Amino acid sequence: MRTLVAGISGGLFGAGLTVSGMTDPAKVRGFLDVFGSWDPTLMFVMAAALAVALPVFQWSARRARPLLDAGFHPPQRSAIDRDLLLGAVLFGIGWGVAGFCPGPAIAGLASASPQIAVFVLAMCAGIALRSWRVRRSLSQDNDERTL
Pseudo-torsion of CA 136, 71, 103, 111, nearest 10°? Predict the structure, then answer.
């Protein structure tokens, strides 16, 4: 059931991104171009997303557990550290240069655009590199503890 709900949710999210034009990098660049020909469309998409999500977050905050899981899974880390800042900077640069962030890029794969496919491959490579770095760091920490 959880997989079905996740699939439906992801499909609805992707459809919303596609219908709103957020899979078009020109829309995103137009929003980021505040001193040129600014396109406020993305602001309205974000406002609509908040209007839908906020009541659901408020409702879920009053629940003891989620509908399809044994409990909530809050983030384990809350510190603003070097890794978080570096990730935010890289995300912002990638978003500004390519005009994509992960959600719209994945939804945009349906268009069979080579530009989007290259972006998604690069994004996956970055995720894999980061995962490898974290695993390596944890392995080194464990090795140091056993000495």
Answer: 110
Q: Look at residue 26 in the predicted model and tell me its pLDDT.
A: 86
**b/e 54-90 (16+ beta carbons within 10 angstroms → b):** eeeeeeeeeeeeeeeeeeeeeeeeeeeeeeeeeeeee
Which token pair is 45? 């998409």
The token pair at 40 is 């406020």
SS (H, E, C) 20-86: CCCCCHHHHHHHHCCCCCCCCHHHHHHHHHHHHHHHHHHHHHCCCCCCCCCCCCCCCCCCCCHHHHH
Model confidence pLDDT, tens digit, residues 8-36 = 998 998 888 888 888 888 888 888 888 98
* Boundaries of every domain in the chain: 2-146
Calculate the CA 40 to chain-centre distance. Answer: 20
**Contact, 118 vs 98, CB < 8 A?**
no
